[in-house]
Structure formats: structure tokens, C-alpha cells
Amino acid sequence: MTAAIVLVVVGILAGMLAGSLGIGGGVIFVPVLAVVVGLEQAVAQGTSLAVIAPMAAIATYAHVRYGRVDWPSAMPVGIASIAGAAVGAQAALAANPLLLRRLFAGLLVLLATRLVVNELRHSRQVTAPDGSAR
């Protein structure tokens, strides 16, 4: 499969996951761009951010139309993330590429572990017929 086809397939899958599950496309884009396409980690991250903006705008629009955005929560997080993104981008540009890749991989492992642990805790809860937890 050529790199262009891989990128199109990844774009479609990441867009579907972002739109349906609310996950950031970077979780998909960065590893594929770095490992499969062969971009440096910092370039993969920058490329991912460039393609996430329009994807996020379309998905956000769809969720806004159905009233599924909590603006009082979204606004402070969004505003604060602007400052965080500026600092984070400068840190990424200054970081050693191997360290950057390891930090990204560690974050993915940490998040995946957290999801599994939370799911295991949730699945162990037994619910009574009246809806109360036992």
C-alpha cells in the first residue's frame, strides 16, 4: 500500500473515531505518521495538529447541532488549552526527538492502562434490578 493510500485510510478512520468517540485524531495520526510513514516525531506531531483542526471543527459542529456540547465546561478548558498548546509546542520543538517519542508512547500506555482499570472496576459493579448498586 502506498503512503498516500495509507494516509487517506488513516484520515478516514481517525475522522470516524474522533467524530464518534470524541478521541483526538493525534492518538491515531502521530503513531502512524511516525512509525508507518517514517516522519520524525516532532514532524508527525505538527502534521497531526494541522489536520486535526478542520476535523475537530466539523465534528464539533455536528455535536453542537445536537446540543451535545457543555459550553460552561468547554470554554475555560479551551481558553486554557491555548496557553498550554503554545508552551507545549515550544517544549516539543526544543526536545530530543527520542525523548519526545518515548514521552508520547508513555502517555498512550498510561491512558490505555487507565481505561482498562476503570472498565474493570465498572464491570465488577453489580446492579440490582431496581437500579441500585450492590
Topology of helices and strands:
Blueprint: H1 3-21, H2 26-36, H3 41-65, H4 71-94, H5 97-124
Helix pairs in contact: 1-2, 1-3, 2-3
Can you walk me through this structure?
This protein has about 130 residues and is mostly helical. The chain has one domain (about 5-125). The protein is built from 5 helices and no strands. Helix 1 runs antiparallel to helix 2, helix 1 packs across helix 3 and helix 2 (about 25-35) runs antiparallel to helix 3 (about 40-65). It is globular. The N and C termini lie far apart (about 50 Å). The model has no long low-confidence stretch (mean pLDDT about 85).
User: Could you describe the largest sheet, including whether it forms a barrel?
Assistant: none
- Can you count the helices? 5
Can you count the beta strands? 0
User: What is the total domain count?
Assistant: 1
> What order do the SSEs take from the amino end to the carboxyl end, as H and E?
HHHHH
Helix content: over 70%
Q: Overall pLDDT, averaged? A: 86
Strand content: under 5%
Query: Rg to the nearest angstrom?
Result: 18 Å
Shape: globular
Q: What class, by secondary structure content?
A: mainly alpha
Distance between the termini: 52 Å
Low-confidence stretches: none
Defining traits:
134 residues; mainly alpha; 0% strand
